[in-house]
Write a structure and sequence with these properties.
It is a single chain. The protein is of the alpha/beta class. It has a single domain, classed as 3-Layer(aba) Sandwich (Rossmann fold). Helix content is 45%, strand content 18%. The protein starts with a strand and ends with a helix. The C terminus is likely disordered.
Length: 133
């Protein structure tokens, strides 16, 4: 059986290589993209089980990347990574999970496994929509 592929998006090559090594040590195949634009092109050509998206990106920001991914691949889980404690609500609506960088790698692998198995948290999104109405 092929190992699930995770797409990691970050504009810092050293961080991507470290994440790649960590995920590969847990049995994942990993694709890396240095920008949102590169990630969108890669997603057109490659099937992935989940996306790890760094919040702070140059060029196409994380909100735009998440929006485009959900438009083209609505069932593809997106895990947002950031050093910030608080995230704008508009991006949290687009992603399936949020992990602070200080919690990596302890929480990252279990979250990838859970999102890959369960798919996007559509019930929680619906609850958030109803609460906002």
């Amino acid at each position: 059986m092929d190992s699930p592929t995770v797409l990691c998006i970050d504009d810092r090559p050293q961080v991507l290589e470290l994440r790649k090594a960590t995920l590969e040590s847990h049995g994942y195949s990993v694709k890396i993209a240095l920008s949102g634009y590169a990630a969108m092109k890669m997603l057109e050509e490659t099937s992935v089980a989940a996306v790890l998206l760094e919040y702070k990106l140059e060029g196409m920001d994380a909100e735009a990347v998440a929006y485009h991914i959900k438009q083209q691949f609505p069932n593809l889980p997106i895990i947002l990574l950031s050093a910030y404690c608080e995230m704008p609500g508009r991006i949290l609506w687009l992603v399936d999970e949020y992990v602070m960088r200080s919690e990596i790698p302890e929480r990252l692998v279990p979250i990838i496994e859970r999102t890959h198995r369960l798919g996007p948290r559509s019930d929680q999104r619906r609850q958030r929509s109803e609460a906002a109405a």
